[in-house]
Amino acid sequence: MSDRGLLVEIFRRIHGLGGCDASESFSRGWDAAVASCEDVLTELAGITCDDLDGGGSDG
After folding, report:
1. pLDDT grade for 59, boundaries at 50, 70 and 90
2. Residue ranges covered by each domain of the chain
3. Distance, CA of 47 to CA of 10 (rounded, Å)
4. How far, in Å, CA of 53 to CA of 30, rounded?
5. What is the tens place of the pLDDT at every residue in 2-31?
6. DSSP letter string over 43-55?
7. Which residues contact 50 (CB under 8 A, 6 or more apart)?
8. Start-to-end C-alpha separation, the chain
9. d(CA 8, CA 2)
């Protein structure tokens, strides 16, 4: 797997952590934390939801 492929897979797995089944206030904080992790990968490696299979930002 290439370095970029590895980063895309890391992004995919972090993206999949969003949308937990918890209380409203907890899930908002959780989703914000997941989004922050995605932002770091986007900033440092240029990886976005568009790089995931199927593209888009459904999470």
Report:
1. very low
2. 3-49
3. 10
4. 23
5. 999 999 999 999 999 987 778 888 888 999
6. HHH---GGGSTT-
7. 56
8. 24
9. 10
- CA angle, corner 1, sides to 14 and 51, nearest 5? 45
The whole-number pLDDT of residue 24 equals 87
DSSP codes, 1-59: --HHHHHHHHHHHHHTT-S-SS-HHHHHHHHHHHHHHHHHHHHHH---GGGSTT-S---
pTM greater than 0.90? no
Query: How many residues in the chain?
Result: 59
Higher pLDDT, 27 or 59: 27
Check residue 34 and give left, alpha or beta (phi > 0: left; psi -120 to 50: alpha).
Answer: alpha
